């Protein structure tokens, strides 16, 4: 594993998993939210985002945390390993709610409330995003190592085996 992506519903623990994976592997870790968002809660342009992401993809080793489905195919072409957190909706909602008010290294500001639009995005994720992710992953099943977790315990077990 030299180039890994971590994807899944917001609140699933992608960033936490990515940090633990980084600690185990020593691979550089990049958060797409840090790339896309400015500290003033505005965004960079799509063109600038794509250019920055392309620079990361051209390096020899990395972990990239985040969904950004528009760029999933671009990342899949370059990675060798995919981690998909496919957790129950309740787990993701609880995870997103638990980080309100917490300083995070994967977001350039502190969330002060559970934004209603973001809450709805999470509610819609299983029907709007997840089928597209699985469809896209199917195209790469023979050329990429794809690991799908259905619980945090499965992800933790994977990390424990990796470091053993």
Question: What is the SS-derived class?
Answer: alpha/beta
Largest beta-sheet characterization = 5 strands, parallel
How do the strands of the widest beta sheet line up side by side? 2-3-1-4-5
The quaternary state of the protein chains shown equals: single chain
- Unreliable residue stretches: none
What sequence of helices (H) and strands (E) makes up the elements? EHEHHEHEHHHEH
Write down how many β-strands occur, each being a DSSP E stretch of 2 or more residues. Answer: 5
How would you describe the shape? globular
Number of helices: 8
Average the pLDDT over all residues and give the rounded result: 96
Strand content: 5-15%
Summarize the structure.
The chain has helices at 14-25, 32-36, 46-57, 72-78, 89-98, 116-128, 130-138, 152-163; strands spanning 3-8, 29-31, 62-65, 81-85, 145-149. It has 164 residues and is an alpha/beta fold.
Q: Could you walk me through the main structural features you see in this protein, from its secondary elements to its overall organization?
A:
The protein is of the alpha/beta class and 164 residues long. The chain has helices at 14-25, 32-36, 46-57, 72-78, 89-98, 116-128, 130-138, 152-163, and strands at residues 3-8, 29-31, 62-65, 81-85, 145-149. Strands 2-3-1-4-5 form a five-stranded parallel beta sheet, sandwiched between helices. Helix 1 packs parallel to helix 8 (152-163) and helix 5 packs antiparallel against helix 6. It is globular and about 40 Å long. The protein starts with a strand and ends with a helix. The model has no long low-confidence stretch (mean pLDDT 96).
């Amino acid at each position: 594993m030299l180039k890994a992506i971590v994807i899944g519903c917001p609140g699933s623990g992608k960033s936490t998993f990515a940090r633990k994976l980084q600690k185990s592997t020593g691979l550089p870790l990049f958060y797409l939210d840090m790339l896309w968002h400015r500290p003033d809660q505005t965004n960079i342009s799509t063109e600038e985002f794509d250019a920055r992401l392309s620079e990361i993809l051209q390096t020899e080793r990395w972990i990239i945390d985040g969904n950004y489905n528009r760029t999933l195919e671009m990342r899949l072409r370059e990675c060798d390993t995919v981690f998909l957190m496919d957790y129950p909706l309740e787990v993701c909602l609880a995870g997103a709610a638990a980080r309100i008010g917490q300083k995070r290294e994967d977001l350039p500001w502190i969330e002060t409330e559970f934004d209603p639009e973001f809450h709805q995005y999470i509610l819609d994720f299983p029907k709007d995003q997840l089928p597209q992710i699985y469809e896209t992953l199917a195209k790469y099943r023979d050329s990429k190592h794809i690991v799908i977790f259905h619980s945090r315990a499965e992800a933790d077990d994977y990390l424990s085996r990796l470091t053993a």
